[in-house]
Amino acid sequence: MDTRVAVISIIVENDGATDEINRLLSGFSDYVIGRMGVPYKERRLRLISVAVDAPQDKIAALSGRIGSLSGVSVKTAYASI
Questions:
Q1: What is the CATH number of the domain that holds 10?
Q2: pLDDT below 50 — which residues of the chain?
Q3: Residue 43 phi, psi dihedral angles, 5° rounding
Q4: In 3-state terms, what secondary structure has residue 44?
Q5: ∠ CA 9-46-11 to the nearest 5 degrees?
Q6: Cα–Cα dist 42/62, whole Å
Q7: Which of 54, 60, 56 is nearest to 29 (CA)?
Q8: pLDDT of residue 67
Q9: What pTM value is reported for the model?
Q10: Is the separation of the CB atoms in 15 and 60 below 8 Å?
Q11: Residue 66 burial by CB count (10 A; 0-12/13-18/19+): exposed, middle or buried?
Q12: Distances in Å between the alpha carbon of 21 and those of 1, 17, 63, 73?
């Protein structure tokens, strides 16, 4: 199956969602190239970037599940290759 390279950007406004995000990312760990999380204490936000190499449907599933969490925003950018 063909895979795509993408970056999933996550903004977490609800501290209670972080455990579920980590659980979801662990479930997709075979596809994760790397991740970076930055706490923005002044605004009480968590900013997370996740680089993935996965089939299109897996990327969409992960983004959709994370984006459905309360207080969480997600955008995905795909490489053109």
A1: 3.30.70.1150
A2: none
A3: -110, 0
A4: coil
A5: 35
A6: 28
A7: 54
A8: 97
A9: 0.93
A10: no
A11: buried
A12: 26, 6, 10, 12
Q: Which domain holds residue 69?
A: 4-78
Give the number of domains in the chain: 1
Show the tokens assigned to 47: 């900013």
Does residue 75 sit in helix, strand or coil? strand
51 near 32, Cβ under 8 Å?
yes
Note the pLDDT of residue 80: 86
Tokens of 72: 């969480």
Instruction: Find out whether 47 and 7 touch, Cβ atoms under 8 Å.
Output: no
* H or E element that contains 5: strand 4-12
Phi-psi region of 80 (alpha: psi -120 to 50; beta: other; left: phi over 0): alpha
Tokens of 31: 């596809």
Which residue from 72, 71, 76 is spatially nearest to 52, judged by alpha carbons?
76
